Amino acid sequence: MAEFEFGTSEGEESDNFLPQDVREYAKKEYWDRRYEEEDSFEWFKGYDSFRDLVLRNVKKTDKILMLGCGNSPLSADMYRDGFHHITNIDYSPACIRRMAHKHANMATMTWLEMDARQLTFPDGTFEVVLEKGTLDAFMVAEKSPWTVSEETAQFCHQVLQEVSRVLCPGGRFISISFAQPHFRTPLYANDAYGWSVRTDKFGDCFHFFFYTMERGGALTQQQREQAHRFFHPPAVDVTPVCLSDPEDFLRRIDI
Known about the structure:
alpha/beta; disordered N terminus; 9 helices
């Protein structure tokens, strides 16, 4: 159990904020409306649920970029835990305005309106980039976990290119998600990003995943092959089989 008392407010979403269509989660207008009314909401689990993994991968002196911070208490919880060099970005001006006002007493934490696909920071600015549920929100409308649409793949690629660019050598990109490794690792396992991929998990009955990408590390061959199969699935032969004997299929079953 953590020795700190954190301000998590995890739980079910209020009916007031549930969208009619899950594709709303990928729209800026939805989040602007929501952040104007909602004070705070924690996706998945709170900081105390994965604090040990953060402490294992992040130093208190690291410069941290919180990607798509939203109105989650995560940044404030980490600040109270001694991580005082946190830059928060979100593309919703309503979110940034309210969060900056709410946490004005945390003097060394900054809040900036910014699109994760077009970061304005110089190369190698941060030791750590952290996202929790940001990429999940943009993938929620995908029809199948086994494939990803061209539009979503391009969106993720733009974000990950920028994350890689602003990480310093040896820096870590941490992605916290409900997506299992066989669905999420292929997105991260790209040699163009110049990092390794490691997976940890946390949670009790339902597991969440803590992905750590280290800049300058190398992918395994298995991860490269997994990514290739994900983006280039083998063709499926859908040619109908005609049987001369209607019951011949019974003899073809290996029991």
